[in-house]
Here is the input.
Amino acid sequence: MNDADRADVLLRTHSKSLLPCHDVRKLAPHLEVVPKDYLANLLFRQEVLSSAAGSVSAADDIWEMCRQDGLFFLNVFGWTRDGRGVETPIRPIITYPYQDQVLLEIWDAAGLFGGRRRDVLIKKSRDMVLTWTCIAADIWPFVFHGMMSLLWISRKEEYVWKKGDPKALFTRGQFILDMLPPFLQPAYEIAKLHLENKDGGGVIDGESTTENAAAGDKRGKILLDEFALSENGFAMLSATSQASDCRVFNSTPRGTGTAFYALEHEAGRSAVSLVKLHWPLHPEHGAGLYTHVGGELVILDEGYEYEEGFEFVHDLDYHARSPWYDIQCQRAGSKREIAQELDMSDFGAGDAFFAPEDLLSAQQYVRPPLLRGRVDILDGVYEVGGFHEEASGHLALWAPLVVGERPPEGTYVVGCDISAGTGASDSTACIYNSATHEKAGEYVDNRISPHNFAELVVSLCRWFYDAHLIWEGGGPGRQFAERVLELGYRDIYYQRTGKTRNEVPGFFPTNQTKQTTLAYYRRVWARGDLLNRSQESIAQAQRYEFGPNNTVVYSGTRSSDPSGQGDNHGDIVIGDALACKAMFASQARADTRPSISKDCLYWHMQEAAMAEAEAEDDW
Here is the structure.
């Protein structure tokens, strides 16, 4: 493997990391004189302290260097405490390159370098020393930058303030202050959830992550530590947004249903700087880094000496591994722990219902809609309306319009999930070609009543050549069903229990039958027997997770709006799953079955799929 290929492999192996690229020499002008080697750093610290002790002028100069350069200050005078260290629990702060960039990003986002103030989201693997880093980032302006008012927030008050507890944020901050030499240490007062610099006027307060945290407050900067664990994350996003224009969100991932996840995926469209710190960035964790390419072992840390008999773990191509990582995997309690704590996986972190590799495979079939618009809503049972193209229309089409301005003639199914139309969730209609199993259209609207939605869906079904219609019958589905029947549309789904057909149309799921329906859709989709063109549907599928007692729950939200306006509950996926169910349902068999020779392999594949659907069905 040549140098260019090795560089490409290294880049791919580090692809989960995302670091800012600040000019360290410009923003930390004195750091270059500080040795980063452990013993050399300790000797340098002694020399600096001796110089300051022997001359007031030298002490003043060193104080000014610390004021100008936060990295110099921390690497010469900062100390941390780690309870895991038996011989040396107290260690000097000697920042790694990734920490230099994180610290500079936090300070820049807080406006300390004169730039644009903004939020920073830090997504990290565990054991990246980030809580200490974020605390140290605030101690520098607290000591040297006057009247700055700061706020520390964590999910429980005891993690913010608990006297003598080394993991509490205030205990850590006070430790850094107490370890400073007298000529740097400000006169400060500390009380429960309050730290005040009596010399410079700086203040640090603390709160837990209640839904009213920081409400009515005004702060120069807010730290929200392990934010993904907050139960009130979305409410806190709203409350803290008014309190400060610089918030630092620091956390390992905890699934796709968190405010942390939502904020991460809005980062490219909002004033949020995104930083991702994957474990190989830590020099101790990344020592002996290796991966695989095409099934072949590639050692990326060529100078590392592995222990005799070390067994390399075969893994997916470009998946980073090291001796440290291998030990952490052996010690982990579950694959879920590995996914969230080490690999920063949002999906694995929440035990994803749809496998990430299947979603990645499905992504290749996503296409932008060919058209977007609306169809005429007509009262006549046998009338067929027209299509009107509108850029903001609720109906997306992947089927081309042919003669008569209708989709290609064929057999179709429409799966619907019905909302109350209040804006809290979407009403969806997912349209599939029964012969090709390809998505032909998708209607999404959160402000249409069940009555009006029924009229629209019947018009859609007529337009799609009397498509077979299935919907979820509970709640608003009952009003929907009444209007469908009033309109005289009869190519509709009736649930069966054994051989008995329900008198009321629609699919009425229990927790078990809903999971069975979603599981069947998942299998059909994963093996490529169904083509879903919708990006929004795949995005929603990513957020389905296993909940308590092996239930399936939707844990995502489209926005952080606390009013619920624009939220969704995975409604498109429900429509897709129902359409999939109807495509292979025995009662719709004659209508949905394409004209294919029995000698064709596809015919036998479809027969097997239908038999599987019928065997699982309790309708």
Observations:
- The first strand starts at residue 79 and ends at 81.
